[in-house]
Amino acid sequence: MYDALSTLTPATLDRATLWLGRGGLRPTRQRQTLAALLIGDGGHRHVTAESLFAATREAGEKVSLATVYNTLKAFCDAGLLHEVSVDGARSYFDTRMDDHPHFFWEDSAELTDAPSEGLQITGLPRAPEGTEVSRVDVVIRIRRKS
């Protein structure tokens, strides 16, 4: 993922606190830690709850896996992350908030940003009565040629 130990600095924790504030979330210690690991260096990430949990352990922080799941959900609900489901059992959390497609690398189970030039989405079905389309996720499953 990245070097978790060098991510938890005063500067990255400050950036995390500001990010949490944009979502209207109280900056608890655990939220600050998880936010710093996600966005502390300003880079974009695609993480699973398990990979973020591993990063907290690597950084020497004590956060339960259940707390990581609950916090990621809170970050999504606050509009700070997008959840991208690649199948019924696996979700990734994306720090990049603009609309963009993804590649899902089947051989490594990695999610990466895909280029959006040339992508056209046309002919969406009409949303059911009383609803509206909130967003469209495009996940392109790829694998290396044998």
Keywords:
three-stranded antiparallel β-sheet; Arc Repressor Mutant, subunit A; 146 residues; 35% helix; alpha+beta; 5 helices; WH_DNA-bd_sf; DNA-binding
Structure, described:
This is Ferric uptake regulation protein. Keywords: Cytoplasm, DNA-binding, Iron, Metal-binding, Repressor, Transcription, Transcription regulation, Zinc. It is found in: Cytoplasm. Its main location: cytoplasm. By secondary structure, the protein is α+β, with helices and mostly antiparallel strands. The protein has a domain at 4-87: Arc Repressor Mutant, subunit A (Orthogonal Bundle), CATH 1.10.10.10. Helix content is 35%, strand content 17%. The chain is built from five helices and six strands. The protein has a three-stranded antiparallel β-sheet with strand order 1-3-2. A hairpin with a 4-residue loop joins strand 4 and strand 5. Helix 2 packs across helix 3 and helix 4 packs across helix 5 (65-77). The model has no long low-confidence stretch (mean pLDDT 92).
